[in-house]
Amino acid sequence: MPEMNQKNELPKQYQPNETEARWSAFWDTQGYFIGDPDHPGEPYCIAIPPPNVTGALHMGHGLDETIQDTLVRYHRMKGRRAVWVPGTDHAGIATQTVVANKLAREGRNRRDMEREEFVAEVWKWKKEHGDRIVSQLKRLGCSCDWSREAFTLDDARARAVRTAFKTLYDRGLIYRGEYLVNWDPVSLTALSDDEVEYEDEKGYLWHLRYPLEDGSGHVVVATTRPETMMGDTAVAVNPTDERWQHLIGKNVILPLMDRPIPVIADDFVKKDFGTGLVKITPGHDPNDFLCGTRHDLPMINVMTEDGHINENGGKYAGLDRYEARERVVEDLKALGLLEKVEEHDHRIGRGYRSKAVIEPRLSKQWFVKIKPLAEKALAAVDNGDIRIIPESPWGDVYRNWMTNVRDWCISRQLWWGHRIPIWYRKDDPETVICFAGEGVPPEVAKEPEAWAQDEDVLDTWFSSALWPASILGWPEQTKDLASWYPTNVLVTGHDILFFWVARMIMFGLELVGGKPFSDVYLHGLIFGKTYYEKKGGQMDVIPPLEARKFELDGGGKLPKNVTAKWEKMSKSKGNVIDPIDVIDEFGTDALRLTVAAYAALGRNIDLDWTRFEGYRNFVNKLWNATRFVLMVTEPLTGEEFRAGARTCALAAEDRWILTRMQRTVDTATRHLDAYEFDKTVAALYAFVWGDYCDWYIELAKRRVYNEEADPAGARAARATLLTVLEHICRLLHPVMPFATEEIWQIMRERLTGKAPGEEAPEWAGSDSGFAKGSLCVAPWPLAEGFEIDEAAEAEIGLLQEAIGAIRNIRGEMFVPVEMKVEALIEHESAACRAALEAQEGAIRALASVSALKVGEKLEHPKFASTYVSGGMTILVVLPTELVEKEQARLRKELEFAQKGLAACRGKLGNEGFVAKAPPNVVEQERAKLAKLEADVEAMRQKLASMGG
C-alpha cells in the first residue's frame, strides 16, 4: 500500500510501476486466478492463443490479451467458474531458425549435428529464453491460471497430437502421397497453402519458340519462369481451339534439352490467353501437375531443395534458379528461339516466415483430407452453434474458405516439432505402423534395426488446432474437460481465421466430439504511423524514436518534406510501438484502456503515442478524485458508509449520481456481453470524468465543506462519494485492474480496518465487495442495485444546462476567469424555476455568478448576452467596460473579414479566373466565399446584440 503523508493523504502522483508489481505478486500469492472445476458457478473458460516461444510481446498481444483479460475478470466478478488457461507455442520453423542462427554465430552448423543433439540445443534455448513472453504477459496484468500453463510440445500435448494423428489416420483422413507442395528453399520445408503470402509484383512474360519435330515450323508458348522449362513434358491446347487442332498428337522439340514432348488437348487451357498454347511443367506448377496427372505425363523435378538446378537441368545444373533464368534466356536468344519479352504483373508467393519466393515442388508429404472435416465445421457456423463476431464480413470469409478447401499438407522437413508417429519397415517401406503410445510400437521394440520412424515433423498448426481441448486434458476425460469444454470464446485477429480458427473447429468436432468454443471474436489489426522523409527524390522511413518527436512535440505539424501514413505495424516500416515501452512510460492501465477504447467491432486500430497519454491522464484523474474523496470522508466510519447511500436524506445531486451510476452499470454490462469494448470504455470514461469528477464532486464540495451548517447533508455527500467511487473501481477493474485495486484496497482498509486478503466484517458485503480480500474477486455491480430517479436526472440536467450556457457565454465574451457576473434565468415552467432556485448556490459557485435571479418574466438589462433553449432563457449581464472592449475587437475582426470578402468576390467575378483556374481551385474559392459571408453576418449580429 502507498505511504501516506503527515496529513494521512495519498501521494500526489499515482506510481504505476511500483503498484503493478505489488498487486501482480499479491494476486499470484493469493491464488485468485486458479480455476476450480468444482466451483458452483456457471463455467467460463478462455484458451489463450499461445504466443510463439521465440516471441516478445507486441501491440497485437497488447490488444488480444487486454480483451481476453477484460472478459475473464468481468465473468469472474459475476461469480462464474472462470479460468483463463495460458501457454506458448513451440513455433516449429521460427524456433528452429532462431536456434540454428545462434549455433551459426558460435561456428556450429545444424546440418553437421545429429538430430537428437540439435533438438537438445533447442530445448536448452527454450529453458533459457522461453519464459520471456510469459513474464511480459504478466506485466500486462493477465489473470491467467499459471498453474495450468501449457506448451504445445510438452508431454500432455504430445500425447494429444499422437492420439489425434492416429485417430484421423485410422479413419482414412490422413494419407501420404507425392504431390506438388509449396516448398520454402530457405527454411527447406513444405508449407501449407495458408502459410504462403501472395503479393503482386512486376515481372516478365517470355514468349518462346518450340520447333515442331517434323520440321514444319514452330509453336510459341509463354512463361514467367523459363528456368523450369527443362522440366517441360508437353505442350497443351484447348480441344475446341480450331487453330491448333492439327497439332494435337504431334511432338515438339524442347529447346536446350533436344527432347521430344507431345502436344496434348486439355480443357484447362484458355484459348484467349497468349497464343492459346501452354507449356506443361508438371513438376513445378499446380495446374500443370493436375494436367500431367490426367494425361499420365512424366513428372520431372529440375530443382534442388535450396533452389538450385539439379541434374535434370542439363548444363544448367548447380546454378541458382535466378542465375539459371538469365542463362536460359541468353541461350534461347542466341538460338533464335526467343520470340519476344513483355512486362507482366503476376502474383508471387512467399513463405510467411522466411519471405523467400516459394517453389512448387514434387515431394512425398502427409496430408489431412479437409473436405469431410470442413463440411461439419461449416454447418456449425451456419446453424448458429458457433458465432463469428463480427459476422460481417468474417462469417462470409469463413464460409468461402470452407467451401473451397484443399487438403492440408501437415508434414514439415524440420527437426523441432512433433515427429510424425509413423514407422516404416526398411525392407518393405509400404509396411507402416501408426502408433499413438509413448516410445515406440511393440513391433519396433522387438526389431529396432528393421524399422525407421518418419523423419518429418507435423505442421505447428496441427498441435495448435488441438489447443482448446488439449489444455483441458484431452484425450483423457478429465474433470477440467468436463467442466470447461467447450470454451466460451476465442479472441484473435482476423488474419488467422483459417490458419487456426477453422482448424480448431474442424478438429474439435471430429476428434473431441464437440465445438471448441461458442464464440469467435475477431478483432482488427493494429496500424501505426509511418513517417516518410523525402530525400533526393525518394521517400525514406524515419526511425521510430526520431519520428516520435512529431507526435509529442510537433503539435500535429509536419515539415514540408515529411509525410505520415497509417500502415500495419511492421519493424521494416519503423512504426512499431513496443507495449513494454508503453507500460514503462504510461503504465499498464493506460495501455489497456487505450487499446480497448479503440477496439471497435470489425475495424482496424490506428495507434500512436498520444493516445496512451490521454488514458494516462484518465487514470490520474481518478487518482486525484480519490485523494479528494479520502480527504473529505476521513471521519466516516464503515457502519456509516454502509448505511449512508441507502438511508441518508439524499440531495438531488446524490440521487442523480446514483442514477447515473446505475445506468452506467447497465450500459457497461450490456456492452461487455456484446464484446463492444470501445463502447464500454466510452461509457465508463464519460461517467467517471464527466458525471463524477467534473460534476458530482464539484456539487458535493459545497456540503462537505459546510458540515456545521448541514451535518446530515455533509454525511450524505460523503457516503455517496465513497459509494460511487467504490462502484467505479468495480466497473473499471476488468479493463483497468491495477489502479482500481490500489484505490479499492485503500478504501477497504480505511473503512474495515482489514489488510488485503483478510476477511472483512459481514456488513462489508452488502453494497460493496469489501467482504472479499481483493477487488478481482469482488462482485460485479448489480443491475438493480439502485433505483432510477428520473426527477433528479431532470433537475441536475437543468442545472448542467444553465451552468454550461453561462460558461459558454463567458468564454465567447472573453470574460476573465476571476470576474464574477450577474445572471438572469427565465423559465416558463414553475417546477423548473423551483429547481433552479433550489440549485442557486451550485450555479453561483460553478458558473462564477455574483447574483442570480430566477423568474418567469424578468426585466432585461441593456448589455447582456443571451442563451435560449426550449422554455428557458438565460441572460448574462456584461459590465460596460467589457462590452466596449468586445465591441472594439469585433469591429476590427469585421473590418478584416470584409476586406477578405471583397477580395474573394472580386476573384470569382473575374471571368478569366473562373474559366482558366482548375475546377477544384474555383470550388475552394467558392467555399471560402460562403464561409466569409457567414462570418461577417455573425459578427454583425453579435455587434447589434451589444448595441454596437
Structural category is alpha/beta
Proportion of beta-strand residues: 15-25%
| Low-pLDDT regions | none
**If you compute it from the alpha carbons, what radius of gyration comes out, rounded to the nearest whole angstrom?**
37 Å
Strand order of the largest sheet: 6-5-14-16
Describe the structure.
The chain has 948 residues and is of the alpha/beta class. Helices cover 45% and strands 19% of the residues. The strands form 10 sheets. Strands 6-5-14-16 form a 4-stranded antiparallel beta sheet. It has a 4-stranded mixed beta sheet with strand order 10-11-9-12, with helices on one face. Strands 24, 25, 26 and 27 form a 4-stranded mixed beta sheet that branches. Helix 21 runs antiparallel to helix 22 (677-704) and helix 21 packs across helix 25 (790-812). The relative contact order is 0.09. The mean pLDDT is 90.
How do you describe this structure in short?
The chain is an alpha/beta fold.
Q: Which labels suit this protein?
A:
31 strands, 30 helices, four-stranded antiparallel β-sheet, 948 residues, alpha/beta, 45% helix, four-stranded mixed β-sheet
Could you outline the blueprint of secondary structure elements for this entry?
Elements: H1 16-30, E1 43-47, H2 59-77, E2 81-85, E3 87-88, H3 92-105, H4 115-129, H5 132-139, E4 150-151, H6 155-170, E5 174-184, E6 189-191, E7 196-211, E8 218-223, E9 234-237, E10 251-254, E11 259-265, E12 277-280, H7 286-295, H8 321-334, E13 338-351, E14 359-368, H9 370-382, E15 387-389, H10 391-403, E16 408-409, E17 411-412, E18 422-425, E19 428-434, H11 442-446, E20 451-453, E21 457-458, H12 460-465, H13 467-470, H14 479-484, E22 487-493, H15 497-512, E23 517-523, E24 526-535, E25 538-541, H16 544-552, E26 562-568, H17 579-586, H18 588-597, E27 605-607, H19 609-632, H20 638-647, H21 652-673, H22 677-704, H23 711-732, H24 737-752, H25 790-812, E28 821-827, H26 830-838, H27 840-847, E29 849-855, E30 864-869, E31 872-877, H28 880-908, H29 911-916, H30 919-945
Parallel strand pairs: 1-2, 3-4, 9-11, 15-23, 22-23, 24-27, 28-29
Antiparallel strand pairs: 5-6, 5-14, 7-8, 7-13, 9-12, 10-11, 14-16, 17-21, 18-19, 18-20, 24-25, 24-26, 28-31, 30-31
Helix pairs in contact: 1-24, 2-18, 9-10, 9-15, 17-18, 18-19, 19-22, 19-23, 20-23, 21-22, 21-23, 21-25, 22-23, 23-24, 25-27, 28-30
